């Protein structure tokens, strides 16, 4: 099951970077989906969010605490996170 998490995280990062590059001079919001605050994905999501906000022009980013995999997939499908 761990490889699914890694693939999902990799796809999320790639999508966030690609979508940030596609929009020129327009403020964009990136919502990084994580897991619970006590889990391993939350600190990674916070770090990615900070990197996106710092290094991608015109981007605001936050890390959203979720109930992990199933909720993340639902939020991704609804277009409410990266």
Q: Which descriptors apply to this entry?
A:
82 residues; alpha+beta; two-stranded parallel sheet; 55% helix
Q: How many strands, what sense, and barrel or not for the largest sheet?
A: 2 strands, parallel
Spatial arrangement of strands, main beta sheet: 1-2
Radius of gyration (Å): 12 Å
State the end-to-end distance: 20 Å
Instruction: Let me know the average pLDDT.
Output: 84
Beta-strand residue percentage: 5-15%
Number of continuous helical runs: 3
By secondary-structure content and strand pairing, the structural class works out as alpha+beta
Runs in which pLDDT lies below 50 for 5 or more consecutive residues are none
Overall body shape:
globular
Please, what is the oligomeric state?
Answer: single chain
How many domains?
A: 1
Number of strands: 2
Helix content: 40-55%
Q: How are helices and strands ordered from N to C?
A: HEHEH
